[in-house]
Amino acid sequence: MKKMIYGLFFGDSITYGEYDGVFGGWVDILKRYALQKFHEGSNELILFNLGIGGETTEGLLKRMPYELAARNSAEGNIVFIGYGANDLATKDGISMVDPLQFRNNINEAIHHAKQYADDIYLVSILPVSQKVDGIVSATGKLRTNEDVLVYNQIVKDIASEKSLHYVDFYSAVLEDKEILISADGVHPNEKGYGVMAETAIPIVEKYL
Known about the structure:
Elements: E1 4-11, H1 13-16, H2 26-39, E2 44-51, H3 57-70, E3 77-82, E4 90-91, E5 94-95, H4 99-114, E6 119-123, E7 141-142, H5 145-161, E8 165-167, H6 169-174, H7 177-180, H8 190-205
Parallel strand pairs: 1-2, 1-3, 3-6, 6-8
Antiparallel strand pairs: 4-5, 4-7
């Protein structure tokens, strides 16, 4: 008996797929992959891209209960949570969401997700390219790779504490980050999103 499973992807612009005019980002690549597999006879895996550009975990918590309630399949749901790139940005020396609050917010998000999903995936934060590491951007925000490591460690720790899955995009793009990150130094380009999709395909494979 074939199943219909929903996949809900919460995140910021990197989940949304900003700056990828070719494939529409990694979630859209997965969406097309799942559809193709369904046509070939596998389970129906319907993916919802719930990424919002510029969002932090504070924004996530405001909308998450509603988003989850509005989209759930009786046959099973999987939830992806990918935050940190905006939380760790500092403006005038103050982080948008400090590490302690970030940890609390992710834990609260997991609590919401658990009411609907058996499988929860925590998505790592990507490294920033050299040219923006520690440099104040046009928007007045500053990001460092040092902070990326700190926030990623929090995500990784929570994943192991709660026996959740950790999606390590950070390692997948680290070595070639200068060619996988777009001109703004923060968002992947289409090559980068392609690498992310390749990393995530084995995950969705399990539900097909």
